[in-house]
Design brief:
The structure holds two protein chains of two kinds.
Chain A lengths: L1 H6 L8 H6 L5 H6 L2 H10 L2 H18 L1 H4 L20 E6 L2 E15 L6 E24 L3 E10 L18 H37 L1 H16 L2 H10 L7 H32 L2 H8 L4 H38 L10 H6 L4 H6 L5 H24 L5
Antiparallel strand pairs in A: 1-2, 2-3, 3-4
Helix pairs in contact in A: 4-15, 5-7, 5-15, 7-8, 7-10, 7-12, 8-10, 9-10, 10-12, 11-12, 12-15
Chain B lengths: L1 H27 L5 H11 L6 H11 L5 H15 L4 E2 L4 E2 H36 L4 H15 L2 H15 L19 H38 L2 H8 L4 H7 L1 H11 L1 H19 L4 H10 L3 H29 L1 H4 L2
Antiparallel strand pairs in B: 1-2
Helix pairs in contact in B: 1-14, 5-6, 5-8, 5-12, 5-14, 6-8, 7-8, 7-12, 8-11, 8-12, 12-13, 12-14, 13-14
Classes of the chains: A alpha+beta, B mainly alpha.
């Protein structure tokens, strides 16, 4: 990606709003701008990265307000709605006077297959289920703190559940599960990256700062870990997580297993930065000034590559999300009642279920969107963080 | 070159030892030991356990002795007798179970690697030469999509599409009539007729990243003065391209095998589970779920060793291609 940006011709005419505010190309504003301001100006020009950033923020917002956004909770089993297909949301209703804003979905009618005696649901255009905003529904505890029962969207009739994205084998609402899964999947990426960040910055820092034998040893360990195929190794480690652990502990166990392999990439980045900075004049100056090692590292060296680290962190979140999804999909990662995208995809593991209910693949789409958005965001951040690439 | 070869092979030994230790740790991780699991599973089947047999097993695996003794006993069995221990899930020696599956995994990974190379090479060159063209954008888009799609999801989608629109299943590596047939020419042909589906699925993400790498390398190379000189001298464009820049850009292409191969083996494991291919994946996950640890650990160890050998081969190839590495 770096090369692309280098090669792209610099636009000669800048958008008018930039001219008005008089920054970016006037020498004086560039030379007094802070490092973060320069990064932001550059980042803003990267359209894909901006898009990725917006989608990422939206996903994390969903992850924060899960209880309110989900029409119901993911564990609610309704056996009479097995594999009910998605009900499309209609916002406007046709009346004699034209269309009015009055959201509804079409209801189901049940057909029984005379041979297999299997019940299938079909969308019935005749039936109408009213949909309301901010409706009172199932009670929940917002962030586990206080009781609430307002949901953003839902059926106004408590006895008629709606399935915007369909239901699974047990009649659980896919949309609600998907929204709850967003919290787990997006956070496991973040937590995993933060844990690997500590491993990475500590080991990579030691490696790059001291060099010599320690550096050699740590580099060999990194090479070793990178040469093993990760999924079999992850599978082996995840299988050792006892099945009687409470969900929260399983969550952290899996996160630590993921970071156990994920730190190597970050350690390499940190080491490379340390190596190149070690000989810089300002580091030498700090040393001559009598700063101790701790101060040299944290006051002088870390701030100068911190932006780069943030970019690398962003780029390693997708790997974590994909790994968690794969493990949970295989049944070795998270388990219900904890719901992640991977746990949801487990429902789609055999061709029978996928053929009956193709909407079970929708969580895969969520994975795809999240990974793409984070990749674009990380790419943009990396380009913006590189001071030599303007 | 010989010196490089010897040094590189010597380097590999500590890595292999480390792999075996990691695999052994995995055996030790689940609570309880092999024997308790065996007794439990035998008891569950309603069989009585013969104390003499227990003692023999205890002695064989060094159970009850310090961990390092157990490790050495396990290693000794593997190195001297090719004995990986017993799989209690199958009630057979592990070595009976793994070799055939490992061979198929190897074929699958190798085929995926070839696919990745064959596809990424021309597309990468095209993307670099026609930078910012429509085709380049398409390649970039597909590349990003390929990177973001988990292998197993791609496998699921392929399965769904072939089931829905072609009304056939894509699982397995052999047609039913060749399932247990001995190896002959017809069976090999049948294998290759089935192989392409998993190969495409496993190879997609690797192809995507290699296209990016090839494109970036070649772009860097194309901007160098010698290219301008050659063009000024009137060298035909295709000759100019393939004579030097492509060859230089090819080096990192080969060195990436080192990390593409582990991802391919990883991908093969998970895709095999979804498509139920007779490779290591499905057996490995069953072993892990049943805590059949000698089988699971042997798989993990052998997969890692295969990967390490593959990386070695790629390093040697690179050294052969690029003298700078040989003499470093």
């Amino acid at each position: 990606m770096t090369t692309d940006v280098k090669a792209s011709p610099q636009p000669i005419a800048r958008p008018a709003e930039h001219e008005d505010r008089g920054f970016e190309h006037t020498e004086s504003s560039v030379s007094v701008a802070s490092q973060w301001q320069l990064m932001w100006w550059k980042f803003r020009k990267h359209k894909l990265a901006m898009g990725g950033g917006i989608v990422t923020i939206l996903l994390y917002l969903v992850a924060i307000f899960v209880e309110f956004l989900a029409p119901s909770s993911p564990g609610v089993i309704r056996a009479d709605y097995t594999w009910a297909p998605p009900q499309g949301l209609h916002l406007f209703r046709q009346t004699e006077t034209g269309s009015v804003f009055d959201p509804y979905v079409n209801g189901y009618s049940v057909e029984i297959d005379p041979v297999a005696l299997k019940r299938t649901f079909v969308i019935d255009e005749e039936k109408i289920v009213d949909i309301g905003f901010f409706i009172k529904g199932e009670p929940y505890k917002m962030w586990g703190l206080w009781e609430m029962d307002t949901h953003l969207l839902g059926s106004t009739d408590v006895d008629l559940p709606v399935y915007f994205l369909g239901a699974d084998r047990m009649g659980r609402d896919l949309l609600s599960s998907l929204i709850y899964g967003t919290r787990i999947s997006m956070s496991i990426g973040l937590v995993g990256v933060i844990v690997s960040f500590f491993f990475g910055i500590a080991l990579g820092g030691i490696s790059g700062f001291y060099g010599g034998a320690i550096d050699n040893l740590i580099q060999r360990v990194i090479e070793f870990i990178r040469s093993i195929p990760t999924i079999p190794l992850w599978m082996g480690l995840a299988a050792a997580v006892p099945s009687d652990w409470p969900p929260l502990r399983v969550y952290f166990g899996i996160t630590i297993i993921l970071s156990f392999i994920g730190w190597t990439g970050l350690a390499r980045v940190v080491r490379g930065r340390f190596l190149s900075l070690r000989t810089e004049d300002f580091v030498m100056a700090a040393r001559l000034d009598g700063a101790n090692e701790w101060t040299t590292i944290w006051r002088h060296m870390v701030p100068s590559f911190f932006s780069h680290i943030i970019a690398s962190l962003t780029l390693s979140i997708p790997g974590m999300i994909l790994a968690e999804t794969s493990l949970s999909f295989l049944g070795l990662g998270l388990r219900r009642p904890v719901v992640s995208w991977g746990v949801l995809l487990q429902e789609a593991q055999n061709i029978r279920s996928v053929a009956t209910a193709p909407w079970l693949l929708i969580p895969g789409l969520a994975v795809l969107v999240a990974v793409l958005a984070l990749n674009f965001l990380g790419d943009g951040l990396r380009d913006a963080a590189d001071p030599y690439n303007r | 070159m010989l010196q490089f070869l010897i040094r590189r092979i010597l380097y590999m030994i500590p890595t292999m030892i480390a792999v075996s230790i990691v695999a052994f740790i995995i055996i030790q991780l689940p609570p309880g030991d092999y024997l308790t699991t065996l007794v439990a599973s035998l008891a569950a089947q309603g069989e009585t356990v013969d104390p003499a047999r227990l003692d023999a097993l205890k002695d064989r695996y060094g159970l009850g002795q310090p961990v390092y003794v157990q490790y050495f006993k396990w290693m000794k069995g593997i190195l001297l007798e090719g004995d990986f221990g017993d799989s209690f899930g199958w009630n057979r020696p592990v070595s009976d179970l793994i070799w055939g599956r490992l061979a198929l995994t190897f074929v699958l990974s190798l085929a995926s690697l070839l696919f990745v190379w064959l596809v990424a090479f021309p597309i990468g060159i095209f993307s670099a030469v026609k930078q910012y063209s429509f085709g380049d954008y398409i390649a970039t888009f597909i590349g990003f999509l390929g990177l973001a799609t988990p292998d197993f999801l791609l496998a699921l989608i392929m399965m769904y599409i072939s089931f829905k629109f072609f009304n056939q299943s894509v699982g397995g590596l052999f047609s039913p009539e060749f399932q247990d047939a001995p190896w002959d020419w017809a069976r090999v042909v049948d294998l290759f007729a089935h192989l392409w589906v998993p190969v495409v699925i496993i190879g997609t993400s690797g192809t995507a990243s290699l296209i990016r790498i090839m494109r970036a390398n070649l772009l860097d190379e194309l901007r160098k003065p010698y290219v301008v000189t050659a063009r000024a001298k009137g060298l035909p464009e295709w000759k100019l391209l393939f004579k030097y820049p492509v060859r230089v850009a090819l080096n990192p292409f080969i060195s990436t095998v080192g990390w593409v191969l582990p991802t391919l083996v990883s991908g093969a494991a998970i895709v095999s589970i979804v498509l139920s291919l007779p490779t290591t994946g499905p057996l490995l996950i069953r072993a892990l779920l049943q805590q059949d640890m000698y089988l699971a650990a042997s798989f993990i160890m052998m997969l890692s060793i295969l990967t390490i050998i593959g990386t070695l081969v790629s390093d040697l190839l690179l050294a052969w291609l690029d003298p700078r590495i040989r003499y470093e």
